[in-house]
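yo, Lipid A disaccharide synthetase is done. seq:
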Amino acid sequence: MAKAVHNDVLDAALDAVKTGATRMVALAAEPASYAAANSDALADAAMTSTDFTIQEGVTSGRRLSVAAKSDVAITASGTATHVALLDGPGTRLLYVTTCPAQPLVSASTVSFGAWDIEIGDPA
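structure:
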């Protein structure tokens, strides 16, 4: 039996991140919760819905492109290994991904490169 999903279904999932995420944070480990991501953030960039673009997936399905952020203040020293998107009301850890390990030094700045979240078509 063939499997299919309409782009609107995938877009709805990606739109939850696009319209909900108000912060992108760098972390030294994978957070288990919103509270952990919030308290353990090494750097914190403000995000708005204009920082996200929903479009065709690279391989299949749909993707959400996340804009780069430059000169973000580093608030705590550590080696960043994860990036997370957090919501505005302060309750939801919307998305977590890994990043290349990068040492961060407090009172300096860091730049987040552009990246994508992709949801593939069902196989």
